[in-house]
Write the structure tokens for this entry.
Amino acid sequence: MSRFRLQQDEILSIQELLKQIVGEIETVEDPGFQARAMVHAHDLPRRVRQALHEFKLNEPEDGLFLLSGFPVDQERLGRTPAHWKDRSTRSPALAEEVLLVLLGSLLGDCIAWSTQQDGLIVHDILPIKEHEKEQLGSGSEQPLWWHTEDAFHPYRGDYLGMLCLRNPDAVPTTHASFESLPLDPGLIDLLFEPHYTIRPDESHQPKNRAILDAGDADVAARYEQIERMNRRPEKIPVLFGDRRSPYVRLDPYFMDPVEDNPRAQEALDTLIREIDRRLEEVPLATGDICFIDNFKAVHGRKPFKARFDGSDRWLKRINITRDLRKSRAARAAASSRVIQ
Ligand SMILES: O=C(O)CCC(=O)C(=O)O
Ligand SMILES: [Fe+2]
């Protein structure tokens, strides 16, 4: 894992930068701020920029970058909200959200989904009572099975960024990479071929939308598209890129058995078993910021007993693409971040 610990002078310089930006905006969702984020990111300490640049350029096999040492004022945050839709106009974690977006901008551009968390760029990950037993980031009692983020979608992010505001019970995020997978070449051949299907995960379903805008034709059309992807998922390979260091696209919980090709199913089962064996725990602590290479590693979360008393685990999450252009047909304007 690439570990990066902020030094005191770097923390002070970041705090100074955040103070200035937070004074100018009401929310990180402000398109003006999103447009300027990459330029603001040039003012982050040089050692931070260098480290994230190397993570992007060298694509380390474990696909995990962990930055720690940023202090988070718990009193300013107040209580962990009961739901991500319980947003005050001005987030108590605005500075941390800005920091996550700036760091993410060193890897690419933040993207949002019109079908997920109401099209917001910065997501809250916190346990929600009604989702306790569900296969969602906001679930708790079930393990969140390891996955590629938004694996079903061709425009899924290249990176996932998470900033931990609090995690009092040290609930682990899980992580596995594909470094020197002991698979025989015949199985690798099959995994590189389009035998597999991945259906949209629960977070993109209309029942998980907060804003009641059933009359919005655009949004309705997006959900119809998700429904089509659910009914007739296209056949895809789960490995791609370089055979010696493959990229992956996997979400076993939402994959159907390959009925017409038992060898392809066997290859997938073997791959899943190997990843299960490698799954590691990464309990994020307050102030930890991790970036996961969504092509090189999978991630999930261990089950836990949520408290629902305002002191629960609370993370902020972003998705980042290296190439905003490839989704242009699905976005309203060149500078828009929302994939529809
Ligand atoms: O809670 C975590 O640590 C991971 C959550 C996650 O993978 C997700 O929400 O997609
Ligand atoms: Fe995830």
In short: The chain has a mean pLDDT of 93. The pocket of 2-oxoglutaric acid (ligand 1) is lined by residues 125, 137, 144, 149, 173, 299-301, 315 (CB under 6 Å).
